[in-house]
């Protein structure tokens, strides 16, 4: 199997055939699936996307695959390099740092709005997710922990009550996903995440908008000197 077909764990999630996924064009479906695989860390920065292989995998011709690549390039998820084809975008270390800074402000704004608008139903859901994340931290399963962590942030996006803000935050989060996932492997990161989430929750639930913004921003930013070194080494 060539590099384009490998994931971070050695496999690519099974994809249903196109006829089983109604409601969008073939190109849009392929784009959505590949974007999920980049966001989950299954396709790492610098990975070459093989046009023929992807067409076979999705059971389509190369035409919608090329269009999917163009859509991903428009969202800055991949780079198109002429005859070399499409490659998952690999930004410079400085660009990654800047993306984390912007994303931290967007996530902070989500938390601020959530502190103003949270409903009892969403409060209960966030508490349940936090409990599940705490339980997952004891199992040391990075994949499960990462997925539940994503659900926590998604619930706060929903609590913020701004579809546009959630969309923009999610788009930038997807572009930094490979780096965020690697952070999860850092020593003591599980315990730190649990504590940081707890403080974010307390601020949101007490309707403290300033505290919600600052605690979420600090949680996402993670730009200590050690973190800068980590990003540079990952490059």
Short key terms for the protein model shown above:
235 residues; Arc Repressor Mutant, subunit A; 11 helices; 67% helix; globular
What's the layout of helices and strands?
Blueprint lengths: L25 H14 L8 E2 L1 H8 L3 H13 L3 E3 L5 E3 L4 H25 L2 H18 L4 H19 L2 H13 L1 H7 L5 H17 L3 H13 L3 H10 L1
Antiparallel strand pairs: 1-3, 2-3
Helix pairs in contact: 1-3, 2-3, 4-6, 4-7, 4-9, 4-10, 5-6, 5-9, 6-7, 9-10
Characterization of the model:
The protein has 235 residues and is mainly alpha-helical. It folds into two domains: 3-88, Winged helix-like DNA-binding domain superfamily/Winged helix DNA-binding domain (Arc Repressor Mutant, subunit A), CATH 1.10.10.10; 93-234, GntR ligand-binding domain-like (Four Helix Bundle (Hemerythrin (Met), subunit A)). The chain has helices at residues 26-39, 51-58, 62-74, 93-117, 120-137, 142-160, 163-175, 177-183, 189-205, 209-221, 225-234; strands at residues 48-49, 78-80, 86-88. It has a three-stranded antiparallel beta sheet with strand order 1-3-2. Strand 2 and strand 3 (86-88) form a beta hairpin. Helix 2 packs across helix 3 (62-74), helix 4 packs across helix 6 (142-160) and helix 9 (189-205) runs antiparallel to helix 10 (209-221). The longest helix is centred in the middle third of the chain and has 25 residues, at 93-117. It is globular, with a radius of gyration of 19 Å. The model is unreliable at 1-23 (pLDDT under 50). Keywords: DNA-binding, Transcription, Transcription regulation. Residues 24-91 form the HTH gntR-type domain. Residues 1-12 have a biased composition (Polar residues). Pfam families: FCD, GntR. It comes from Acetobacter musti.
């Amino acid at each position: 199997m060539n590099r384009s077909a490998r994931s971070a764990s050695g496999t690519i999630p099974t994809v249903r055939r196109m006829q089983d996924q109604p409601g969008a064009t073939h190109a849009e479906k392929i784009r959505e699936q590949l974007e999920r695989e980049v966001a989950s860390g299954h396709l790492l920065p610098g990975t070459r996307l093989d046009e023929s292989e992807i067409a076979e995998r999705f059971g389509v011709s190369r035409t919608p695959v090329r269009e999917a690549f163009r859509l991903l390039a428009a969202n800055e998820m991949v780079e198109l390099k002429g005859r070399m084809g499409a490659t998952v975008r690999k930004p410079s270390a400085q660009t990654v740092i800047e993306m984390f800074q912007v994303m931290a402000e967007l996530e902070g704004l989500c938390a601020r709005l959530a502190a103003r608008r949270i409903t009892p139903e969403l409060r209960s859901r966030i508490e349940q997710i936090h409990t599940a994340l705490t339980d997952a931290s004891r199992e040391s399963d990075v994949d499960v922990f990462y997925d539940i962590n994503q659900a926590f942030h998604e619930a706060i996006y929903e609590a913020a009550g701004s579809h546009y803000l959630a969309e923009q935050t999610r788009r930038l989060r997807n572009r930094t996903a490979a780096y965020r996932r690697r952070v999860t492997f850092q020593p003591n990161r599980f315990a730190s995440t649990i504590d940081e989430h707890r403080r974010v929750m307390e601020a949101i639930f007490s309707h403290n908008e300033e505290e919600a913004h600052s605690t979420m921003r600090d949680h996402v930013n993670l730009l200590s000197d050690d973190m800068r070194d980590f990003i540079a080494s990952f490059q």
